[in-house]
Each structure stands twice: as structure tokens, then as C-alpha cells.
Structure to design on (164 residues):
């Protein structure tokens, strides 16, 4: 099966993921891709402790994530992939990871970021990376919880004139 969702959320593993999205997607594994978290033991421990014991979890660097997602094992798993920045997805796609859709979720306010949805704030770098994904034919859907109506990110960022 492989990837059941690729999610951008700067909070990474938290309640909306382990309760809402886990119930909606039924993943075998929650995979967190972050060079910073994967190389900081205390952060890694905190995020892994938030995952229920009946779900496998991994915290991996970008290189480790590419290797895992391109492995035979991943093809037989239902994986919910979490990143905190659109740049990780650009890099995963550039490395050959087949991603067709991205759930743009919690990208919260920081100085220099502008709001495009109640839970999505972007700066020029985010917009450039999201545009690269859009130009590769990747569907960009904004939704923080499974019960919310999706936001068409390409439409909100004016990447397309006629967005469906």
C-alpha cells in the first residue's frame, strides 16, 4: 500500500494525528521525517512516546526516510508520513519517492508568514516549495482534521486559474 497520507504539520505527532487521522486512515506506521528530531534523542523520545502502542512509529532523517519509503517493506505497510516543512516533501520527491497528494495542515503563525487558511500560514519559501509540488502534479489539500472540508491550496495561492 505505501503512503496513505503525507502531512505537513509543524507540531508533527500530536492529538489530531494520533486520534483523528489515525482513526480515519488506519496506518500501520506513523513515520516522522525530520533531520533535527531524528538526531536529537530527547525530541525523538518525546514524539515516539505520543504514539499508541498498537501503531509502529519511526523518527528518521531525510536520507533514512527516502531509503525506507523506497524499500520493499514500505510497499506492504500503510504509512502516515509527517514533516514540518514543505521542503522535506520537495526533497523526497526529488529523491524518487512517489508522492501524489499532500495534506497541508498545521503551518502555524510565525513572523513573516501570511494566513491562507485558519490553520495555514506561509512565507515566500513555503509558497515556492508548494508551487514546485503543484507543478509536479501533486495535489495539495489543506485540512487539519478529517471532518473539516478541504481547502484547495493551489487555488488559495493562485497557482491555477481554474482549480477543481
Amino acid at each position: 500500500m505505501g503512503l496513505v497520507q503525507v502531512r505537513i504539520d509543524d507540531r508533527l505527532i500530536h492529538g489530531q494525528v494520533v486520534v483523528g487521522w489515525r482513526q480515519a486512515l488506519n496506518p500501520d506506521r506513523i513515520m516522522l521525517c525530520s533531520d533535527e528530531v531524528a538526531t536529537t534523542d530527547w525530541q525523538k523520545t518525546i514524539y515516539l512516546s505520543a504514539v499508541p502502542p498498537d501503531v509502529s512509529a519511526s523518527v528518521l532523517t531525510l536520507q533514512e526516510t527516502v531509503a525506507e519509503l523506497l524499500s520493499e517493506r514500505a510497499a506492504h505497510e500503510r504509512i502516515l508520513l509527517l514533516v514540518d516543512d514543505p521542503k522535506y516533501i520537495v526533497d523526497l520527491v526529488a529523491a524518487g519517492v512517489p508522492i501524489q497528494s499532500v495534506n497541508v495542515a498545521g503551518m502555524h503563525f510565525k513572523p513573516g508568514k501570511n494566513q491562507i487558511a485558519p490553520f495555514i500560514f506561509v512565507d515566500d519559501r513555503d509558497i515556492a516549495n508548494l508551487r514546485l509540488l503543484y507543478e509536479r502534479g501533486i495535489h495539495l489539500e489543506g485540512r487539519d482534521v478529517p471532518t473539516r472540508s478541504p481547502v484547495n491550496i493551489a487555488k488559495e495561492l493562485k497557482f491555477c486559474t481554474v482549480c477543481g
